[in-house]
Amino acid sequence: MIIYLDTNIILSHFDKTDHFHLQNKNLLDQNDIIYVTGFITIVEFASILARLLKDNQIQFSNELNKLIHKLPEHDQIKTITETCFGRLNLSILPASGLEKIIINKKEYLVENSFTLAYELGSYLNLRTLDLIQIASAMKVKHFTNFNVDYFLTNDKNILNNAQIIRKNIKIIPISSIELISILKI
């Protein structure tokens, strides 16, 4: 089974105060599942982390807190991000390429995650980063040797669009609780 991880799953795994922390920690500790994500997840993780740290809305293990304690804020974010991703059994897949797109009779070379997200935006009612995440999962499924089965997320907007996503990109958005139920963990 191959599962593409949304950013909220990874954040929850490391944030002891998150409502889904134990479920996601349990899921990501499973050795018989292949977890993948795109580089957009690292960017989004660092961005959200910066906001959460600034507002003291995230709590890490004592070990991680000791690691970053004396670092400047921008180094803390980078260190936490690299440490967290380094601790996961996860492949970060940069399935990427440039694609020609014509806008206003002018041709542009655009990274194909953005062109796919642009197409998805016409029928999915999602935020921009969510569209890029779905596009990244789609690219992983179609342009690598990883046949992604599920898009693991606890994002209600993505889960509310699950039928449309499943129909159009052949990946099933699923929540942590649903996946735990299927796997009988």
Average pLDDT rating? 89
SS-derived structural category? alpha/beta
Number of structural domains: 1
Give the total of beta strands. 7
Q: What is the CATH C level class, in words?
A: Alpha Beta
Helix content: 40-55%
CATH topology descriptor: Rossmann fold
Proper CATH architecture? 3-Layer(aba) Sandwich
Supply Rg. Answer: 17 Å
Number of helices: 10
Question: What order do the helices and strands follow?
Answer: EHHEHHHEEEHHEHHEH
Please describe the biggest sheet, giving its number of strands, its sense, and whether it closes into a barrel.
5 strands, parallel
Task: Classify the oligomer.
Answer: single chain
Overall shape: globular
CATH homology-level superfamily: 5'-nuclease
Task: Estimate the strand proportion.
Answer: 15-25%
- Give the CA-CA distance, first to last residue: 15 Å
Strand order of the largest sheet: 3-2-1-6-7
Low-confidence segments, given as residue ranges, are: none
